[in-house]
Amino acid sequence: LALLLTLPFAEEKIVLFGLPLYFPEIVTLCAVAASAPFLLFRQGAQSSRRERILILGAVLFFSGALLSFLLNPFSWGGLGLLKSWFLFPLVAGAMAVWAIDSLPATRQFFLVWLLTGFGVAMAALYFFAVGDMTYDGRLRAFYASPNFLALFITPSILITIFFLKYPLVGALFVRWSRVAFSVILGLLLWVLFLTHSYGAWGGALFAAALLLLAPSLEKKEWRKLFFASLLFVGCLFSFIFFEYGSDKWQALDFSHDRSSLSSRMMIWRASAKMITDAPVVGIGVGRFQEVYLINQKFFPPYLEWAVPQPHNLFLALWLQTGLFGLLGLLVLVGRFIFLASRHWLRTRESEQRHFLLLTLSLLSFLLVYGTTDTPYFHTDSAFSFWLLLAVGMSILHYQKPSA
């Protein structure tokens, strides 16, 4: 929980013995040190086949990043990113699997995640109030990009929707909690709208549809699905109505040779060439900007110069973790989605089903958003990803206590 609370400050660091450590890394080190005596005397459990496949995926992912770093030109920046994006988040995820061992702990985890995102949203509204916006009228608060702000608060939106659909227990408490969650949802949606992050909007809409409609689809409640489809069409037309003519909308004009879409296509073409040049080990962790500029002579005119990531999660994974890292993450995520979906269909424990669906919804947001951006390659996002998988595994392991 302390780790979740430090994620908004993931770019803040202190230097110990010449080594920069970010706040989430410090919390992870403290957690490991505090838990070491318990872990040393804990009896090892036999891992099942499903867990071994997940562990294999995680090992391949980290090994791919390590090999890509070692077999490419060395840089201290790359070493720091290997630590912040891969090593510490993976350790934090392993600790979370051990620490979160019940549904009440899972509920507390998601509530803290919600409140962390809500706190960031409230801080962002201060920036909006004082007129601190980007040149094209988008809200980014203290993040480097509006997309980063949207990426951070969207999971809180999905978690808020979850607690509105499956409220906390207690008749009187349910009534007031729904009022509170409704207010929180409205403010979060307002901040998300102000970011004008279309990728986050699309990912959030897909994930919310999964969260709300999966039970109806399972029960074949066609009437609900029909009205939900109408609502989706209404949201689409509302999006076009409010955004048509805005600076961000004009940037999507594909007929313009310097449009946002034209820039993305050029970046993706350059990324494909980098993959062709280094298909197995990739270009190394944190080297995309450097190699991207080297390849500028092959794609005149170069529409974008400052591009730290390739605006696509899967291209970024292949480039910075190599083929082994990409395959490892696909095995890990694919196996988890399979296990969680199967368990959601089979289990009769209602709360366990609900939390599994929330986990799948949050993961689907990251994957859909990853088609237009790189949601893993930020310190807070890397920690969030591994914590999400860890909580998902804890939910799968849950056994209802015998009466």
What is the CA-CA span between the terminal residues?
30 Å
Q: Average pLDDT, to the nearest integer?
A: 86
Main sheet attributes: strand count, strand direction, barrel closure: 2 strands, antiparallel
Q: How would you describe the shape? A: globular
Largest beta sheet: strand ordering: 1-2
Order of helices and strands: HEEHHHHHHHHHHHHHH
The total count of helices amounts to 15
Alpha carbon gyration radius: 22 Å
Oligomeric grouping of the chains: single chain
The level of helicity is over 70%
Q: Report low-confidence residues grouped into runs of 5 or more.
A: none
Beta-sheet strand percentage? under 5%
Q: How many strand units?
A: 2
Provide the structure class: mainly alpha
What's the short story on this structure?
By secondary structure, the chain is mostly helical. The chain is 71% helix and 2% strand. It contains 15 helices and 2 strands.
Task: Tell me what the structure shows.
The protein has 403 residues and is mostly helical. A two-stranded antiparallel ribbon has the order 1-2. A hairpin with a 2-residue loop joins strand 1 and strand 2 (19-22). The protein is 71% helix and 2% strand.
Give the helix/strand layout.
Blueprint: H1 2-6, E1 13-16, E2 19-22, H2 23-40, H3 49-70, H4 76-99, H5 103-129, H6 146-165, H7 171-195, H8 198-218, H9 222-243, H10 247-250, H11 260-277, H12 288-294, H13 313-346, H14 350-369, H15 379-397
Antiparallel strand pairs: 1-2
Helix pairs in contact: 2-4, 3-4, 3-13, 4-15, 5-6, 5-7, 6-7, 6-8, 6-14, 8-9, 8-14, 11-13, 13-14, 13-15, 14-15
